[in-house]
């Protein structure tokens, strides 16, 4: 067990004195990391604490150290990761505007349905994960019953749709582990708590998986409504027509939140790399007025809608160094474009194209979108007068094109490593390179 504290009283002292409570060595395994995660979740829980609300956010509950009887001590972490998102939401708003949003009945109902949805997904996730490990089927009867308790009810069809989404996530995690080491099984935690006592901070990840090579991946559900500009039809025939309901300001908050989780995992829990921090959007649609508290539809995952595909909140990686270098160049350009003020339609289209090329490479194992994007960039800048381009922009374009043009040689040198790590990605890269460069090379 990697915990430095040998007793409950020592643990309390570590937290109060803002000292790290776990230690890992190069010989530590993913089993050790799993024990630390379990230890954190078992020893902390949310409890009302004596903290100034304006300093920590609207929720006065803090992650508090439990006592030996399962109750709570007076020792707690002053900050929650979610406080950062709360502060971002308040930016540019008056106190009156924030208060009006907080007490709005419809917003309260949306939040409560989101909380209930998280609870159902946790139950479904645990049941399906255990089934994957044991090979035994599971019953949803207890989950169906739980879904109908209280004022915020989910129907059986809603639970079934949420189940499809969580299965998509768990199956993806097992597929990644199989590529790393097919003889090992991933550790998956639902509602996993992590802490950084040195920063006096803690937070909970909806889904957290640890792989046998000590890398990890996180997922966070976001329950969202979609307006008429992103939907078509009514009632049972209502469908999503775009992802326009997933606003940029939301993505900014998610990046801040997930980036903090990533930092804590790397610094305090022995994780050597976080492959991805993913957002799983959940579309929740109400039947009639929201105040009636009746659901029309609940959907999650790309299998249920192309507009509900997972979103990378922070930089994603494949775990293959040669591919990740290419991804890094795209993320650099993406950040540069996003920092521009007063974005024109052309800039917005460029951002969308880069995001799509990253998604296709990481999620669909398809590099063709990225190569085609590079060719379009090259054609675009061939026709632009040099004196209309800033040096920074020109330099970024040159670096991007050099990275793409050098990828064939890099892949040729390290192809066996890519094939060993991910055969599907390897086959797709070969296919695209043959299409793009086949006539000009003897290697393919």
The biggest beta sheet reads: 7 strands, mixed
Average pLDDT score: 86
Oligomer state of the chains in this structure: single chain
String of helices and strands = HHEHEEEHHHHHEEEEEHEEEHHHHHH
Structure, explained:
This protein has helices at 8-16, 30-43, 53-56, 81-90, 95-103, 105-134, 141-147, 156-180, 248-268, 321-338, 345-364, 368-382, 391-405, 407-421, 423-437, and strands at residues 44-48, 61-66, 72-76, 79-80, 187-196, 201-210, 215-224, 231-232, 239-240, 273-286, 295-300, 311-312. The longest helix has 30 residues, at 105-134. A hairpin with a 4-residue loop joins strand 6 and strand 7 (215-224). The chain has 444 residues and is an alpha+beta fold. The radius of gyration is 24 Å and the shape is globular. Helices cover 51% and strands 17% of the residues. It has 15 helices and twelve strands.
Features:
12 strands, alpha+beta, 3-stranded antiparallel beta sheet, globular, 444 residues, 15 helices, 7-stranded mixed beta sheet
Map the helices and strands.
Blueprint: H1 8-16, H2 30-43, E1 44-48, H3 53-56, E2 61-66, E3 72-76, E4 79-80, H4 81-90, H5 95-103, H6 105-134, H7 141-147, H8 156-180, E5 187-196, E6 201-210, E7 215-224, E8 231-232, E9 239-240, H9 248-268, E10 273-286, E11 295-300, E12 311-312, H10 321-338, H11 345-364, H12 368-382, H13 391-405, H14 407-421, H15 423-437
Parallel strand pairs: 4-6, 7-10
Antiparallel strand pairs: 1-2, 2-3, 5-6, 6-7, 8-9, 10-11, 10-12
């Amino acid at each position: 067990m990697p915990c430095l504290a040998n007793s409950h009283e020592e643990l309390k002292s570590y937290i109060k004195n803002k000292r790290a409570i776990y230690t890992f060595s190069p010989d530590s395994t993913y089993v050790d990391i799993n024990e630390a995660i379990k230890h954190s979740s078992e020893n902390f829980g949310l409890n009302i604490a004596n903290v100034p609300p304006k300093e920590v956010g609207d929720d006065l509950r803090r992650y508090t150290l439990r006592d030996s009887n399962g109750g709570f001590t007076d020792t707690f972490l002053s900050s929650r990761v979610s406080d950062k998102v709360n502060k971002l939401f308040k930016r540019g708003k008056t106190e009156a505007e924030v208060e009006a949003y907080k007490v709005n009945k419809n917003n309260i109902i949306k939040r409560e349905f989101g909380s209930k949805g998280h609870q159902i997904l946790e139950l479904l996730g645990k049941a399906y994960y255990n089934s994957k490990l044991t090979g035994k089927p599971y019953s949803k009867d207890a989950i169906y019953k739980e879904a109908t308790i209280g004022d915020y009810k989910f129907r059986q069809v809603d639970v079934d749709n949420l189940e499809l989404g969580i299965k998509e996530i768990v199956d993806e995690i097992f597929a990644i582990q199989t590529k790393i080491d097919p003889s090992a099984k991933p550790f998956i935690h639902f509602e996993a708590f992590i802490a950084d006592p040195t920063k006096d901070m803690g937070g909970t990840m909806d889904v957290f998986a640890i792989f046998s090579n000590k890398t990890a991946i996180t997922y966070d559900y976001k329950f969202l409504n979609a307006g008429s500009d992103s939907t078509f039809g009514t009632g049972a025939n209502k469908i999503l027509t775009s992802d326009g309901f997933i606003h940029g300001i939301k993505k900014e908050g998610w990046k801040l939140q997930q980036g903090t989780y990533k930092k804590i995992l790397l610094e305090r829990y022995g994780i050597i790399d976080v492959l991805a921090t993913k957002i799983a959007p959940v579309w929740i649609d109400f039947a009639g007025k929201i105040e009636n508290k009746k659901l029309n539809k609940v959907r999650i995952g790309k299998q249920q809608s192309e507009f509900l595909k997972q979103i990378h909140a922070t930089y994603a990686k494949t775990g293959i160094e040669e591919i990740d270098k290419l991804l890094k160049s795209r993320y650099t350009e993406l950040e540069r474009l996003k920092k521009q003020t007063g974005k024109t339609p052309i800039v917005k289209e460029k951002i969308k194209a880069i995001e799509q090329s990253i998604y296709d490479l990481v999620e669909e194992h398809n590099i063709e979108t990225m190569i085609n994007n590079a060719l379009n960039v090259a054609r675009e800048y061939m026709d632009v007068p040099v004196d209309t381009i800033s040096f920074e922009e020109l330099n970024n374009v040159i670096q991007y094109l050099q990275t793409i043009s050098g990828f064939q040689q890099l892949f040729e040198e390290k192809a066996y490593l890519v094939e060993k790590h991910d055969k599907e990605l390897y086959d797709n890269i070969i296919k695209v390179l043959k299409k793009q460069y086949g006539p000009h090379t003897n290697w393919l």
